[in-house]
Amino acid sequence: MNRYPSVAMSVLDITTDRLNESRQRIQHLSTLPVTKRIAHILVTLCNKFGEKHQRGLLIQLPLSRKDLADMVGTSAETTSRVMSQFQEDDLITSGRQWVAINDKPELLRISAED
């Protein structure tokens, strides 16, 4: 650390970012309704992995409803209901191994509304 302070500072920055993300995730899991949590995770995944596609912003990850449920701290059935509602509202389109975000601004609004 003394020899390479810039590396030490980079490691501390990364650790700080991860700690802040964990703190925010815990806060979301304990205080936000399921619909907001799912909207939030979809926007987060879209920001990290979304690719422009004719279907919308495509998140091409092998995510099951159970995987999403585990990410937001709810049951697979509840996640499936919310995702179906998002699909009915034309916010998303989904398949077996992908989700396309059709209306990111609306998902952002849902995840942020009070």
Explain this structure to me?
With 114 residues, this protein is α+β, with helices and mostly antiparallel strands. The chain has 2 domains: 1-31; 34-112, Arc Repressor Mutant, subunit A. Helix content is 64%, strand content 11%. A 4-stranded antiparallel beta sheet has the order 1-2-4-3. Strand 1 (51-53) and strand 2 (56-59) form a beta hairpin. The protein is globular. The mean pLDDT is 88. This is Crp-like helix-turn-helix domain-containing protein. Residues 32-105 form the HTH crp-type domain. InterPro entries: HTH_CRP, RmlC-like_jellyroll, Tscrpt_reg_HTH_Crp-type_CS, WH_DNA-bd_sf. GO terms for molecular function: DNA binding; DNA-binding transcription factor activity.
Q: How are the strands ordered across the major sheet?
A: 1-2-4-3
Average pLDDT number = 88
How many DSSP H or I helices? 5
CATH architecture of the largest domain: Orthogonal Bundle
| Shape assignment | globular
Number of spatially distinct domains: 2
The total of beta strands comes to: 4
Distance between the termini: 44 Å
The CATH homologous superfamily name of the largest domain equals Winged helix-like DNA-binding domain superfamily/Winged helix DNA-binding domain
β content, as a range? 5-15%
**Low-confidence spans: pLDDT under 50, at least 5 residues?**
none
The name CATH uses for the topology of the largest domain is Arc Repressor Mutant, subunit A
* Helix share bin: 55-70%
Q: In this structure, how is the largest beta sheet organized?
A: 4 strands, antiparallel
Element order: H for helix, E for strand: HHEEHHEEH
Derived from helix and strand composition plus strand pairing, the structural class reads: alpha+beta
Report the top-level CATH class of the largest domain: Mainly Alpha
Indicate the radius of gyration in whole angstroms.
Answer: 17 Å
Pfam family, one: HTH_Crp_2
InterPro entries: HTH_CRP, RmlC-like_jellyroll, Tscrpt_reg_HTH_Crp-type_CS, WH_DNA-bd_sf
GO molecular function, one term: DNA binding
Domain HTH crp-type: 32-105
